[in-house]
Write a structure and sequence with these properties.
Blueprint (H helix, E strand, L loop, with lengths): L1 E2 L9 E6 L9 E10 L5 E9 L4 E7 L4 E2 L3 E9 L4 E10 L8 E8 L13 E5 L3 E3 L4 E8 L6 E9 L4 E3 L5 E9 L4 E10 L3 E5 L2 E4 L2 E4 L3 E6 L3 E6 L3 E3 L4 E9 L5 E9 L4 E6 L4 E3 L2 E9 L3 E11 L3 E12 L1 E13 L4 E8 L3 E2 L3 E10 L5 E10 L5 E9 L4 E3 L1 E3 L2 E3 L3 E4 L4 E10 L3 E10 L7 E10 L1
Parallel strand pairs: 11-20, 22-30, 32-42
Antiparallel strand pairs: 1-2, 2-3, 3-8, 4-7, 4-9, 5-8, 6-7, 10-12, 12-16, 13-15, 13-18, 14-16, 17-20, 18-19, 21-23, 23-28, 24-27, 24-29, 25-28, 26-27, 29-30, 31-33, 33-40, 34-38, 34-39, 34-41, 35-36, 35-40, 37-38, 41-42
């Protein structure tokens, strides 16, 4: 039976009853009632009343009746959830012959209930980033905004103002993000790549707002450093051919950051040959290259290279130092390589001894045995006096020309030889006649613009009759 309309589709409560078809007098039997909530709503104060008349005596029930009289019993069911059923089992017996008539009725209360959730949305903000970097490292800050509360936060925005000296990669001094709606337990993470235009210590913090709430991240500190290289190239101002050029290169890091992957290069001067390289350097093409893993702040390293200059010339070399995150620095110096003129005077007579009346020739050879030109070479011959010899002839030659000498008393003069290159020679020949027997001497003196102190050669000859 469905109450109140009689149809289960449109009623609230349904009651089913199950009873035996027939019972014997004074014999106990059992029947049941099933009450069902036919709706999707909660029913309260549900009560079932069973009226059974004078022919039936109720012995017991499960559950127990709330109230009971000789001809009626009531059960208070209380609350029935949507579609919930309860069963009442009744035990009794017929006390008179005749017809036991039982009638069940149900009462209830229908509730309309609504709930209003009480929530507590919240905002938390965290920022992280490097504690120390070099100025040209990738500098990235990570900002995470989260809702640890029990309700959603609407229209959440995050602002990250950058301190002086830091900008975003596109040059702005702040970063802003729209996190939108944050559900309970939800987080959003944003990254802020920045660049530094100076070194120093920078404090970064961010602020999040939304739904009337504000969260601050607190400040974190980043120290930005930078290496700064200085280079000095030292070389002698003057060297002579045959002497090496020793180069010393000093690289210092006067910055506050480590100079990583330091490379020092020295250009090999044109015309020079590498003799030795210190500090594990190597020749690479037209350069000497030395590499160092790192150079700490306020430290310096010294590198040495020795060159052999092969010709008289000016030798200019340039040293360069470069490292990660440091500006490349260079310095040059110049060595002037000159030669040293050296004059050698040699001589001999032929023949020796010489019979009086015959001639002998004195050959004098001036050689530039140095590494620079000799200029203005002059040679003077001096014959012995006392009538021991007389002048016959004088001639000579140089790489540039042949020439003739002349006598002036006992002196034999030759034209000036303008230039003798290194290794070149000039030859002078003086022929005399023996006039008196004895040991006689022929003296030659040679000077130049560079060698002003005379070189002297004395050749002794035996004259006989």
């Amino acid at each position: 039976m469905a109450y109140p309309t009689g149809s289960a589709a449109t009623s609230v409560v349904g009651i089913e009853k199950g009873m035996p078809f027939q019972v014997n007098l004074d014999q106990e039997f059992e029947y049941h009632l099933i009450v069902t909530n036919l709706t999707q709503n909660v029913l309260t104060d549900v009560s079932v009343t069973e009226e059974y008349g004078p022919y039936f005596e109720m012995i017991s029930s499960n559950p127990d009746a709330t109230t009971k009289s000789d001809e009626k019993a009531t059960w208070s069911i209380g609350t029935l959830d949507p579609r919930e059923s309860r069963t009442i089992r009744v035990r009794g017996r017929g006390v008179q012959t005749g017809n036991i008539t039982s009638c069940a009725s149900v009462t209830y209360a229908s509730l309309l209930c609504m709930g209003i959730p009480v929530v507590a949305p919240d905002l938390e903000l965290a920022i992280s980033g490097p504690s120390e970097v070099l100025r040209c490292d990738d500098i990235v800050y990570t900002i995470t905004v989260s809702n640890p509360g029990s309700g959603a936060v609407e229209n959440v925005t995050v602002r990250h103002p950058l301190p002086n000296g830091l900008t975003t990669l596109d040059g702005r001094n702040r970063a802003e993000f729209d996190a939108g709606r944050l559900e309970p337990g939800q987080s959003q993470t944003f990254t802020v790549p920045v660049q530094a235009n100076r070194t120093g210590t920078f404090e970064n913090e961010a602020v999040a707002q939304g739904g009337g709430l504000t969260a601050e991240s607190g400040a974190i500190e980043t120290v930005i450093r930078e290496p700064n290289l200085e280079i000095t190239r030292s070389c002698p101002e003057l060297r002579f051919v045959g002497r090496n050029i020793d180069v010393e290169i000093v690289v210092a890091n006067v910055g506050d950051g480590v100079a990583r992957d330091l490379v020092v290069e020295d250009t090999i001067p044109a015309g020079a040959e590498v003799v030795s390289i210190g500090q594990g350097g190597q020749v690479a093409g037209d350069r000497v290259v030395c590499s160092v893993d790192s150079l700490a702040p306020e430290r310096e390293r010294t590198f040495t290279v020795t060159y052999n200059p092969t010709t008289i010339d000016t030798y200019r070399g340039t040293s360069t130092a470069r490292a990660y995150c440091a500006e490349t620095v260079s310095e040059s110096c110049t060595t002037r390589v000159e030669g040293i003129p050296a004059l050698l005077l040699e001589g001999f007579d032929d023949p020796d001894p010489v019979e009086v009346g015959n001639t002998t020739t004195y050959t004098l050879i001036v050689t530039n045995q140095g590494s620079a030109d000799l200029t203005g070479i002059e040679l003077i011959g001096k014959m012995e006096g006392d009538g021991t010899m007389e002048f016959v002839s004088a001639e000579g030659s140089s790489p540039a020309r042949n020439f003739t000498g002349s006598a002036d008393g006992l002196d034999v003069n030759f034209p000036t030889v303008e230039r003798l290159a290194p290794g070149a020679r000039a030859t002078y020949r003086v022929t005399v006649r023996a006039l008196k027997s004895g040991q006689v001497s022929f003296r030659a003196e040679a000077v130049s613009n560079e060698i002003t102190r005379p070189l002297i050669k004395v050749e002794t000859t035996n004259f006989y009759e």
